Amino acid sequence: MCGIIGITSLPNNLREPIGKVVRKCLERLEYRGYDSVGIAVIKGNYIEVRKGKGKIIEVSTRLNFDEVDGTTAIGHTRWATHGKPSDENAHPHTDCTGSVAIIHNGIISNFLELKEELIKKGHVFKSETDTEVVAHLIEEYLKLGYRPFDAFKAALSRLKGAYAFVVTISQEPNRLYFARNTSPLVIGIGNGTNFVASDIPAFLEFTNTVIVLRDGEYGYIEPNKVYIEKDGVPVNIEERIRLISWTPEMASKEGYPHFMLKEIHEQPFAIGSTLAGINEKEFDNVVNLLLNSRKILIVGAGTSYHAGLVGDYLLTTVLGLDTHAVISSEYKRYVNAVNDNDTVIAISQSGETIDTLVAVRALKERGAKVIAISNVIDSAIPRESNYVLYTRAGPEIGVAATKTFTTQLVIMTILTLRAGIIMGKLDANEYRSIMDSLNKLPGLLQNIITRTEGRVKALSEYMSRRQNAYYLGRGIGVPLSMEGALKLKEIAYIHAEAYPAGESKHGPIALVEEGYPVVFSILDDDNVDPLLGNVMEMKARDAYTIGFVPEKYIGKFKELLNAVLELPNVDYRIAPIIYIVPMQLLAYYTAVARGYDPDKPRNLAKTVTVE
Amino acid sequence: MAYSREIIGVILGGGRGTNMEPLTPYLDKPLIKLLGKPLIYYPTDNLVRLGLKSIYVISRNPAKIGNELGRYFNNISIENVGQKGDDIDSALRMINEIVGKGTTIVSFSDVILPREAYELALNSHVNSGKPITILMTPLSDLQGYFEVEINDTVSINKIVEHKSGYAWTGILITEKEFLISLQEFNGNINEALKQFKGNINTALWSGWFVDVSYPWDLLSAIKYLMIDLKETRISKDADISPRAVVEGSVIIDEGARIDHGAIIRGPAYIGKNTYVGNNAIIRNNTSLEEESVIGADAEITESLIGYRATVGRGSFIGSSIIGDESTVEPGVVTLNVLPSGVEVSHLSPVIVKGKQIAKLGAIVGPKARIGANTVIYPGSIIEHNKYVSPLSILK
């Protein structure tokens, strides 16, 4: 995802320099990405570009966006998916002459062939991005004598993929061209100033008159004019104008009341992107390193630590590797036991978690190699690591981690499978069958969300009236329970504690009384019968038993459970990826039922950058 | 929120409401009152609060409904239109006949949602740029609801079987092109949706939602509407004994009289000119409508007491509905939990008439009379005008 904004205004119509207006709009779009930023302003007959890697606040201060004056400008905030964040790869991109500048959100799927063609014609490319070809393509048509709008249309006709563009051409200093195909784009109509942006909140401070563009539409804005066309036919602008006023925050949730719910629902897509974005070579290197390590430490904090525990379980139990999951802030315990034969896997959504970064530095100092698993390309931890595996979950705004957890598990599972087949611990059939289930995960998960969401919502009414809960499981169900309990704690403010189910009778059961909620994670593994005993123990004490149960064991558990959530029979090694989703929903709906905002849990921050 | 022009509201209130029959022999479902206001007030109020200035109400009895709504809304154009035909298709077909252009928000008269749900749907619609938006909500049991099914295309189906998934909240936001298509397909929404394959926006509502199709849904509606009561509001024209206790969030309307020793434990609504007798206790989620009378020592919990209804001395009314102008004589007890062996909870509720509910007492139609010291078993329905002799046991 990226955020784009274009502004064109009559002279002296804006109360502040245009660079400052663009910067403000970009800050509203920051949720769409924040690894590099840039602006371009038309100055007479050339275009001035200022861009760089970093957050909006840093780059705009460093490059003095606020002082840039002019009447027509574009701005872009990037979230890298391919091509690392760097000054060169930041948008806007320009052609060879510097008279065409472009910002883009989306992917141009045929850019390689176009690039080859343009290089043959003598164009020089400055970045690795797909976006830059569009600037050169327009330049090419301008050279042939096309008028700017015709050149823009001609270039569009050559492109395949999903995109939203805004283009400035210095010959026409008061006009911005735009086009939308799949990626969102919205026009804002002000008094003597018009806007075009990825999203309504970007310009809501300046105008509330909008036109939402539809796929296949393109055109241009001038300070007093909006022109839209589709397939060569002009669109009636009047009919499409909408007046709105809402809090800028609401618009970005795309039809969900909270970011957290949106992100829970995005998990099938996030997992699909992560699977599609796997870098084979990097995985081979990492597997190689793991197999040649004496010991493996997995460090992480919060939800990432729980992902680490699942990874620990897989590597230890399935592969027999000497693995320990460590809470980042407790790394000191292992410092003396680490040497240059060891490997550290550092898990951090943001790649900036200070506790994890400190642990990575200290363990690296002892000679350990570091593998990072992160969602933010080229962030601090990946930069300091020997290898990086990226989850491609897209920006996560909700403070409670959801889609980054499941995608981290996908990465850990694939690592285990690949190592397993090399070590001979998994046979080819088993490997293929689990890989196959992983590839089917997005569809399966979608189905599970639809089937369980209503039941979970009903269950949340009960949970919302409780002060405490236990989450119990065995085997890989233990870290799963820990993550489920953490979710309930952090957003619904219900004291929830996870325990290995077998341990529950050695203490925790003393607290259980009538109606005490106990959530069981029952997986399709060899722990089913002992778990049945644990459920009976709780039931006998009148606990309110809730079970996440595979279809084939429903009959066995049904009588003992007050609430049953039926899940498909899946291999226990990938079950946590599925089971956690209804648990996230349970925490979410319980928080909503209790009247709390799940996106802004008290006392918590998304990325913790203090020790 | 303010949408200055072009957005028109349509409220569909023309269903027969067959399932509500014990309560509706004399007035239509949209006019049943909860917390002092008719059902139809709630969707209308939500549309007005979105900033809409022009709202069409399609119903079977436009004159009466127009009269009632006129009492609450000023400066808003509310057109009342009589419905031709009873089914949803004919209702949807009419939308284009009466509005036909621009953005239209369609809402059911009997679905109660908080205002935020409407805001969410409208924001999502404008932001999506698509010609139609469907607001849906997850439910554990879709039986009796319209299910929203999302595959390659989106469809809305009436569900008969037990199934979990997403229910349509009845809120639909459409642009002109979809309305035209709806007209072409004679109001058949699924045929129209098929034409817009891939161009349909769905929004997901995660908060509360009540579709009032059975009498006991009114009790859920009261419970949820009370969530929004955060404070106590007592009319200066109410007469409350200094020895009465009012705690929690309670609305006491003008002319209400609360006698010595009575306890009102909120959230509760005490309507206009009502009377609560000595030592009576009104517990949570109870709505006493206008001019109702609660005798001394009676206990009412999670119930709806209709207009001019009377509950006699020492009665217990729990999870029940007492219809307008009915009389419950002294000492009547409604049982609201099944006696033994059946567990009642949100996940294994009582099933009444094939529909699940958590807890239920009696549904008493209007102008009925229940004799003294009668015991009424859970889920009993007493028809309107019926006379039950004293000391009866109703199962």
UniProtKB/TrEMBL annotation, chain A:
Superkingdom of the organism of origin: Archaea
SUPFAM superfamilies: N-terminal nucleophile aminohydrolases (Ntn hydrolases), SIS domain
E.C. code: 2.6.1.16
InterPro entries, A to Z: GATase_2_dom (IPR017932), GFAT (IPR005855), GFAT_N (IPR047084), GlmS/AgaS_SIS (IPR035466), GlmS/FrlB_SIS (IPR035490), Ntn_hydrolases_N (IPR029055), SIS_dom (IPR001347), SIS_dom_sf (IPR046348)
Record gene name: glmS
CDD domains tied to this protein: GFAT, SIS_GlmS_GlmD_1, SIS_GlmS_GlmD_2
Protein name stated in the entry: Glutamine--fructose-6-phosphate aminotransferase [isomerizing]
Keyword flag Ribonucleoprotein: no
One Pfam assignment: GATase_6
Biological process per Gene Ontology, one example term: UDP-N-acetylglucosamine metabolic process
Described purpose of this protein according to its UniProt entry: Catalyzes the first step in hexosamine metabolism, converting fructose-6P into glucosamine-6P using glutamine as a nitrogen source.
Uppermost EC category: transferase
Protein location: Cytoplasm
